[in-house]
Amino acid sequence: MRVTWVSRIGGRAVNEDAVGKISRNGITCVAVADGLGGHNSGEVASKTAIDSLFKSFADSPAFSREALEKYVNSANKEVFRRSGTDPMYINMSSTLAAILIKGKRAVWCNVGDSRLYRFRNSRIAEVTEDHSLAFKDFMDGRIEYDDIRRSENQCKLTNAVGSYIKDLEISDICAAEPGTSFLLCTDGWWEYVTEDDMEDTLKASSNTREWLESMLEIRESRAPRDSDNYTAAVISM
User: Fold this and answer.
1) How many CA atoms lie within 13 A of 122 on its CB side?
2) What is the DSSP string of the chain?
3) How many angstroms separate the CA atoms of 161 and 224, rounded?
4) Which residues contact 139 (CB under 8 A, 6 or more apart)?
5) Per-residue pLDDT for the chain (237 aa), expressed as one digit of tens each?
6) CB 151 within 8 A of CB 131
7) Are 97 and 32 in contact (CB under 8 A)?
């Protein structure tokens, strides 16, 4: 298994995204988060979400749907707790996409509009559902899937770590044999890198780093100067 990532500030004053990896007992956890809140508290929210997720995992490493739910709920509680420790942190929250991998098996979840894509033989096999009003508009048939990227409702979340988690959905445990790849990314990434881009660059790349750099080149060529922070982590089995 190979894991690599990039996280950049974009056109903002502060990078409110966070990303990381931790391994224990033959299990690897990878996560990305995108903080929300004024007064730079988004940066605190995303880091707190990742740190608390990893601490919960390190304290009791396990591979199961129930274990991942426990780790995410721990992150949710810690971000909420910390939001009450400083007036600058009031109402801060974060998106979170996380995956557990053990051997040739994987399980994942997302909260908010950070996404996880699973690829099999360079084709998208699964993608998480956004928790946003724009995604609801798509599900209700009011817009097309690609229109989510341009919707004014895209940044209006219906789920967030530290604020509220409604009906947390954990994936089924899936095969992650050779030929499987994963992409975890914040909205600052997938807004400018389309699903076709993801598949085409993966197919043309010889390794994980090359795939990430090819997508990064596309992202930077399309995003305006004042674009959001952007983070992506790629995993190849």
Assistant:
1) 12
2) -EEEEEEE-TTSSS--EEEEEEEETTEEEEEEEEEE-TTTHHHHHHHHHHHHHHHHHHHS---SHHHHHHHHHHHHHHHHHHHTSSGGGTT-EE-EEEEEEETTEEEEEEESS-EEEEEETTEEEEEPPP-BHHHHHHHTTSS-GGGGGG-TTTT-BS-BBTTB--S--BPPPEE--TTEEEEEE-HHHHTTS-HHHHHHHHHH-SSHHHHHHHHHHHHHHHS-TTPPPEEEEEEE-
3) 28
4) none
5) 999 999 999 999 999 999 999 999 999 999 999 999 766 799 999 999 999 999 999 999 999 999 999 999 999 999 999 999 999 999 999 999 999 999 999 999 999 999 999 999 999 999 999 999 999 999 999 999 999 999 999 999 999 999 878 789 999 999 999 999 999 999 999 999 999 999 999 999 999 999 999 999 999 999 999 999 999 999 999
6) no
7) yes
* Verdict on whether the full-model pTM lies above 0.70: yes
What is the Rg, in whole angstroms, of the alpha carbon atoms belonging to the chain? 17
| Residues comprising the chain, all counted | 237
Written as six digits, the tokens of 155 are 């940044």
The token pair that represents 86 in the structure block = 């400083």
